[in-house]
Amino acid sequence: ITVATCSLNQWALDFEGNLKRILESIRIAKAKGAKLRVGPELEISGYGCYDHFLESDTYLHSWEVLAEILKSEEARDMILDIGMPVMHKTVTYNCRVILCNGKIELIRPKIFLANDGNYRELRFFTPWVSKKVEKHYLPRMIQSITGQFTVPFGDTVVSTLDTCIGCETCEELFTPQSPHISMGLDGVEVFTNSSGSHHELRKLDTRIDLIKAATAKVGGIYLYANQQGCDGDRLYYDGCAMIVMNGNVIAQGSQFSLRDVEVVTATVDLEDVRSFRARCASRGIQATHTEAYERQDVNFSLSHPHTDGDLSVVPDKPRPPFYHTPEEEIALGPACWMWDYLRRSKTAGYFLPLSGGIDSCATAVIVASMCRLVVKEAAAGNEQVIEDARRLAGQGDTKYIPTDPTEFAGQIFYTCYMGTSNSSDETRQRAKRLAGVIGSYHTDLNMDTVVTAIHGLFSLVTGKTPQYRIHGGSNTENLALQNIQARLRMLLAYLFAQLLPWCRSKEGGLLVLGSANVDESLRGYLTKYDCSSADINPIGAISKNDLKGFIAYAQKEFKMDILGEFLDATPTAELEPITEDYVQSDEVDMGMSYSELSQYGTLRKVDRCGPFSMFYKLVHEWGQHLRPTEVAAKVKRFFFYYSINRHKMTTITPSYHAEGYSPDDNRFDLRPFLYNASWKWQFSRIDQAADNLEHSKDFGTASRSA
């Protein structure tokens, strides 16, 4: 049999576009000889509708789209596994709808809902009960097409003339008691999984390992479909549709792509599943004791009558799975997300305050990577990319095709160095040279006159003149003077983003890019409403260490020698005056290193550690080179600054989600933003534990040995 799965770049509530992409995927699958096509989770409505799933309109329009699919010629002579929301007995469910030859064979609601991290499915949907099946009364618009009044609704499987198919949806693969176990024991040979799974650095191997393990244990053919692209918020769904059989990857799609439709097919032999299962006697014993699923009989076969006699038909062979390095993931994931965001927002391009530091440098290089991907897809004849590129470049009525990434960057990417008397010539020149290499439309300004005007206004009103710390001012004065510069940069960024295209006789405004990394956001090392406040931030959930690795990769891969200068430079905000014996340093200002921040972030979010448990983990990890009281001081310092700055996360710029310890307050990391920053009870317990450890016999022995 030949089977097909796909990755679709669906968009929340874009019913017309979503229908177009679904039909295109069916056409491609059919042209490749497939008789089973599986699509992503909630592909009709788009996964990221969120509270729109609470509106009846979403369900009405989903049925209208399904009606168009049922009437289409594409839906003939195929089994289609389609994702959409369904209201059953006035309760909302996340469902798979199985179609065959213009009929609905069953509606399978999701049993285990994703409700952690970025997911809140229990807010919109209700989980179904395992192996429960009821009648669903179809809307009249569907009745008039299919001639059906009711269809099965529930956890049931499909029996064709030659095999048995069972559905699994996204989260159900990740649960301890996944449905594929009991389905496989009950004779299901083909498993479909329709997902809305987002990209996170170093996550893909978890997904692939689970699919391989599923079929390695119970045998079978596993078709994994996923959404791909920006659905309308912080997540990038990273595709990678795949077909796995008996624990081996047979076919794998791309993880990052500018293609709106990607179909993955494979030809497999059902007898290989049956012989694989026959190897294990204990499987047969467990199968005998497994409660049977209700089966929906479908008078249809996945095999073609001529296949067995056609000697040119050869089953696809296993292949090793493909993984990108983390550096490649940073180069590709945010770039694809930014392209979707840019073209769908109907704006004219991106504007980036380019400081000459590594963070804004990384953001600029990601834009450069996006331009490289656009040129590559245009050369491959991707009509959608060409159409979008023409509009963005202001060449909509011409035959313009982007052929050079730097030329295309000059059309849609604007950078600006916003210097003051505290800025160094080194950062100014680095920013200028980087802009030249990338090809951005670059401006360079000195905003001292604006800063001086604000200083003068304050002094005029209050009669007081604040001073920098090196000029005798207090910490309060010093911080306020730094924040004035930072916030003025945000105001100027939005002014230039609105008017620079106009200066070039172009239509539209620009999206402002932020460039605060995840570690600085976690620590709160940023000014509220400064250049960290932007429209979107491609690096806001990426650590400083990962960004350095990415820049080192891009220096070689993109042939940008200038990037070596950014790697060698000391990270600095350049908000205080530079003297012979003082240059501002980010890590000195923060009182902790970026490596430490990454470790704090992982322990706080991923490992769910409060102050006390974080101390106990770190005192064992760092105990060979730090005393317990020193570890205690570091942990307390982190939690103090984290808690007094947590309020900044309520206004943080929407960032590409790439890291498991992102402090994004919007949906991912739900915590108070007004803390008792003294942490009196917790810190006293840490101090007591540290003191006990230092006075213990084991600590003295360990210290002498170290």
From TrEMBL:
Entry keyword set: ATP-binding, Ligase, NAD, Nucleotide-binding
Reaction(s) catalysed (UniProt annotation): deamido-NAD(+) + L-glutamine + ATP + H2O = L-glutamate + AMP + diphosphate + NAD(+) + H(+)
Pathway it works in: Cofactor biosynthesis; NAD(+) biosynthesis; NAD(+) from deamido-NAD(+) (L-Gln route): step 1/1
A GO cellular component annotation in the UniProt record: cytoplasm
Limits of the CN hydrolase domain: 1-270
GO molecular function, one term: ATP binding
EC numbers: 6.3.5.1
GO BP: any one term: NAD+ biosynthetic process
Organism superkingdom: Eukaryota
InterPro entries named among the record's database cross-references: C-N_Hydrolase, C-N_Hydrolase_sf, Gln-dep_NAD_synthase, NAD/GMP_synthase, NAD_synthase, Rossmann-like_a/b/a_fold
SUPFAM superfamilies (alphabetical): Adenine nucleotide alpha hydrolases-like, Carbon-nitrogen hydrolase
Family affiliation: In the C-terminal section; belongs to the NAD synthetase family.
Entry protein name: NAD(+) synthase (glutamine-hydrolyzing)
Species: Circinella minor
